[in-house]
Amino acid sequence: MTVTIDQIRTTLRDRLAHVNGRIAAAATRSGRRPDDVTLIAVSKTAAVEVAAIAFDLGVRDFGESRPQELWKKHTALPAARWHLIGHLQRNKIDKTIPLVSLVHSADSERVLAALSEFGVKRASPVAVLLEVNCSREASKGGFPPESVGQVADAVMSLPGLRLEGLMTMAAYGDDPQTARPTFAELRELRDGLRTRTGLPLPQLSMGMSNDYEIAVEEGATLVRVGSTLFEGLGP
Ligand SMILES: *Cc1c(COP(=O)(O)O)cnc(C)c1O
């Protein structure tokens, strides 16, 4: 069965209303304003045409985990804000960073040093989040929580970077409540870093399709939602 453009548009409109409603309710429940949370539509499994419909429906922030896919979608939708949420190889920095508004996945001192060099070269700082492996799964990237203080000190000493906050991925589980301690830990880490660095560190990027409401209750400012929006819409 093929899905027509009209069906995709109707489905996406409904899904966006559903997700935005749940984000707003979770924010209100936890004494925050719905506007404090930005929905990032993770379009990595969606066709360019489907991402374009999402843009048309008002989505302005998109996340991609692979640089090549981000280049392609940015060409089609240059007016959107593009977030890099996956591992960045240093040899792709020059081509990728000019297209990206925030790097969520700074996951090694080596990539931070390379981003710093790039920020200095273009005379405009690169906005980054440190990816933290709160769930301590060997399969996941990111800095161990214990090391984040030292990493932040190192970032402070590097020119050409603007540290905006932290990002994490919770362990996958059937019950989204199991993700709550992970999200609370990221917030506590961020609060500690604020004291340590004196930086405002406004952004907490946490929560995906399965657990974004819990993440908002625990202080997420950026939620990265993919499959709940785009599943089954092609390609
Ligand atoms: C794919 C991905 C997401 C979106 O995941 P869904 O479960 O499809 O919502 C969020 N964050 C990162 C880092 C991802 O790679």
UniProtKB/TrEMBL annotation:
The upper taxonomy is: Bacteria, Pseudomonadati, Planctomycetota, Planctomycetia, Gemmatales
Q: List the Gene3D superfamilies hit by this protein, alphabetically.
A: Alanine racemase
Q: What does this gene product do? A: Pyridoxal 5'-phosphate (PLP)-binding protein, which is involved in PLP homeostasis.
The Gene Ontology terms for molecular function here are: pyridoxal phosphate binding
> Of which family is this protein a member?
Belongs to the pyridoxal phosphate-binding protein YggS/PROSC family.
**Which HAMAP family does the record match to this protein?**
PLP_homeostasis (MF_02087)
User: What positions are modified (N6-(pyridoxal phosphate)lysine)?
Assistant: K44
Q: Which UniProt keywords apply?
A: Pyridoxal phosphate
Give the superkingdom in one word.
Bacteria
Organism for this UniProt entry: Limnoglobus roseus
Q: What is this protein called?
A: Pyridoxal phosphate homeostasis protein
